[in-house]
Structure formats: structure tokens, C-alpha cells
Amino acid sequence: MKLSKERKAYVVFLGLALAAVVIDRAFLASDPIGPDQANAAQEKGLSTTLPGRIDALLAESASKRSLTDHLQAVCEAEEINFSDLKMTFASLQSWVKGAQHEDSGPSTQPNEPDKAEAFKRQHKLMAVMVTPDGYRAIVNNRCLLIGQELDGFRLISVGPRSAILESETAQVELKIESNGEAHRAN
Q: With 0-12 CB in 10 A as exposed, 13-18 as middle and 19+ as buried, what is 87?
């Protein structure tokens, strides 16, 4: 029987692996193998009982109590003071303000209507275009990419006939005039 070079390499590798297994089992494995021979003894000096108040709480929890009652009992036993804890699930004011800002859409925040109205009066959206670099809006003969600023307002979105700009406190939508329409947002 003639073996190719590849098959000879496989036979040599298989022989080495078999020899390694035999050496491992015969000479290196002195510990018992398998769950039947395994021994799980407890370390000396470790207590199997929990402290008294925790045992009492565990016994009480075995009875059918509500989660609220169980947590109240644990808090009393551990002497936890809730006045020192932060409200984890309370919403932060900055999040609430951000959500109100997003819900208001392209209108302005109530504390800065004059700034937004002044920006709308002073600026006119003349055109929008798509380039390989991205969307652009031409406002007062100035070409803006998304992210660029004009008089404190940053361009954030360009639509087919509109552009949305925002400042820290206000958001403005400029529209392309057609047939004498005003360029203000609705």
C-alpha cells in the first residue's frame, strides 16, 4: 500500500496524539477520574449556619409574603437608611428638558422665541442640494454642510424643500419660498 505525503503526515500526527494520551493517563493522572470517585468534603472551620437574623429572615421568606413586605423586613434588619440613597429610577431634569425639546419638533423653546424669530426673519433658504460630500443648504447665498454653523445656529437636517437649524435652546425650520410664501416654520 502506497501512502501519499499528506496521509503520512496524518498518520504521524495521529500516532503522536495517541502517544500523548497514553502518557497522560498512565503516568501523569494520579487523581481519580469521574464523578463517582470525586470527593466534595467541607473545609474544617467553616460554619454552615448563617447569622441569626438572616436565618430568621429566610424562615419568614419561606411563607407567602409580598415582595414589598420582604424588602421592608430586610431593610429593617440591615438598618438601611433610604434618605442617603439616590433615586435610581428618577428621571434627570436634563433628560426631561431634552425630551420636551425633541417633542416640540421644529419650533423653538419658550425661553428663546425672539432669537429664533429674529433668525427666521434675517435668513432665507434659497436652495438645497445633494453632493458627494452630503446634503447642503444655501442660506443667504452661503452654502452650509450639515454640522456647520451660521449666526449661532447649526444645520442639523436638510429636506427636499427645507432645512432645520438649531442652537442650544431653539430649533428653526427654514423653507424655500414658492410664490411669495413666507419661509417660516408652521
A: exposed
The full 3-state SS of 118-158, as one line of letters, equals HHHHHCCEEEEEEECCEEEEEECCEEEECCCEECCEEEEEE
Q: CB–CB of 135/128 below 8 Å?
A: yes
Q: Where are the domains of the chain?
A: 52-84, 108-175
The answer to whether 157 touches 163, Cβ cutoff 8 Å, is yes
Supply the pTM of this predicted model.
0.37
**Sign of dihedral through CA atoms 9, 10, 15, 17?**
positive
For the domain 108-175, what is the CATH code?
2.30.30
Tell me the CA distances in angstroms from 39 to 9, 29, 33, 34, 135, one per residue in order.
42, 16, 11, 10, 71
pLDDT tens readout for residues 16-34 = 999 999 988 888 766 656 6
Distance CA 84, CA 147 (A): 43
Distance CA 20, CA 24 (A): 6
